[in-house]
# Entry
Amino acid sequence: MKRKRKVYLIGAIILAGLAATAMKMLWGGQEVMVLQVRPGTITRSVTDSGYVQPAVDFDIHATQSARVAEVLVETGQAVKAGQVLVTLENLDLSVQISDMRSQLSQAQTAAQSARAALERTRLELVDAGDNLKRMEELYGAGAVSRAEYEKAVLQVETCRQILKEQSARLDSALAQEAGSRESLGRLEAKEGQLVVKSPADGTVLDLPVKREEVVGPMTLVATVAAAGQLEVKADILSDDLGEVKIGQKAVISAPVLGQDTLTGEVKKIYPRAEEKQSALGVIQRRVPVIITLPDPGPLKPGYEVRVAIETRTRDGVLVLPREAVRTTGDGQREVSVVVKDRVEHRPVQTGLSDQVMIEITGGLEEGDVVVRDGGLELKEKTKVKPVYE
# Structure
């Protein structure tokens, strides 16, 4: 009997509590979170993923068939301009250079010999000319015969002919020497290409060759990123590209940055879209966009980032959280305004929106009190108890 009384007592307490709650709802109204309409700034952004890449990088290729003799650096290593990265060896080229040096030496010797012979003949021509002058005087005085005079003339003519031939031989020898020297220069320049050097201060991004490996022309030997110059490449959906312009601000975030963000600027928009496959296997048309990164912070080439390109911004406009605005069945936008603790459904006109806020262009005034959750089922004139954020 006592047990039944106890059960009845508990039931009575519960009913009393429910009744009290109902009375509170009836007289005090349902508690709802509200906020006041205030001016603010709203920014529309095109958001997508991207990755960090060097603003300037250099792909260094082999220029000839060769064997990798030494690899002197490692991937990720900082290098200076002119620092040797890889040395190659081309034995055929070494033989050609040796042969050409021998040919050049022979051409130089031949040129020296031709020059010496030419100088001797010039001296002989001078002597022959002096002798001819004496013979002319003696012949005029009748001291020598005509035969002796003609012999002196013939000697001068012979020296002149020999001098002409030797001059031609010297020109030929000099031409051969110049040709050999030019050929040797080309071969030595080709030999110089076997020493692969960094074109700039920077970091080695890729080093795909190994010691003793045989490479051919256009084989990638190394990739070097110029120091301190990074940028972000983001592939933006072509449908979102209409508002993206060069010079617009871009906010960059990444896990490595934590809560911090970096600021860049749209530098280049590619002139054509490319087919890309999404993570879900959907083929999309995307346009590469390059964003400057003046201060990369801890970001390194290859890091994935999130990019938000700010395409439109409005300051000093009335804004509300997007969840405060609902769309009716006929496509109209409306909010629940609290006036004297009662709900009033009010149609509004909206403008720019971002991921959090929406601009109110008509239907509300600054200071109006609006229910934060536009999805609450609150009938017109429902009595509520506003709870401000």
